[in-house]
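Following the same procedure, sequence and fold were stored together, as reproduced here.

>
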Amino acid sequence: MRIVFMGSPDFAVPSLNALVEAGHDVLAAYCQPARPAGRGKAERRTAVHARAEELGIAVRTPKSLRNEDEQALFRGLDADLAVVAAYGLILPRPILETPKAGCINVHASLLPRWRGAAPIQRAILAGDEVSGVTIMQMDEGLDTGPMLHRLTLDIRGKNAGQVTEELANLGAQALLDWIGNPSPPEPQPIAGATYAKKIDKAEARIDWSKPAAEIELQVRAFEPSPGAWFEANGERIKLLEANAIELVGGAGKVLDNHLTIGTGSGSIRPVKVQRAGRALMSPEDLLRGFPIAKGTKLS
């Protein structure tokens, strides 16, 4: 099958690999343009860009697909199908209508739940026990097109990094399942539709007045990025793994010499923390070089 692949981050790479390994003719990979990243602000290619080059696939990085020149280039590929996985650009109608079999999307949720930009983080924050991937026929709406195939995943106790990796592999499997045995489209039900808005970095700051169970979900949802955090001794500390426990203590109060912290209901026992510019460490290692005394009130 002649396929155009459209994706950018690590999540999309397994789907690209699966198409190539299955013998499909991937005509081009469309990705977000390289952007400055890291301390040196050097231009960094997306994960799909790097992998496509390794595979010898032509890479295109337009800033928009709304101009006629880009649409003409896309038509010139004469694709049977476009596969989209976390691409990051809206596909206008002329693009959607170009491939003979249309454009399909590998979406990281069980639609219609968690349409939008951040389905994995929103599912964890909401305390969902099950998520999954949906192969969807794309239309001009935001993840509103008919469903083609779905696979489920138990996400209990997992952080966003773990869920992203597992759903990326599951998405590749679901993609090949459907291409190999296409099923008719099923309209999305209106009931149960929710929107996964983009994560605002301000959401990562921990509010100790919230219940411990809610804060634990916050920690899981923002690992590895942007990382849930709190402030101690005037410095930002990321909390990247933690457990909610029933120990009662004042909200934001350090309860012992292991950095157990009281919340609005129960307490949080940190497992992995990180100071700015430092490696991950245990709370005990943190406290050896960065004392936070029992009884301290954190903000």
Q: What stands out?
A: The first helix runs from residue 13 to 21. Helices lie at 13-21, 47-55, 68-75, 93-96, 119-125, 160-180, 212-221, 283-289. The chain has eight helices and 15 strands.
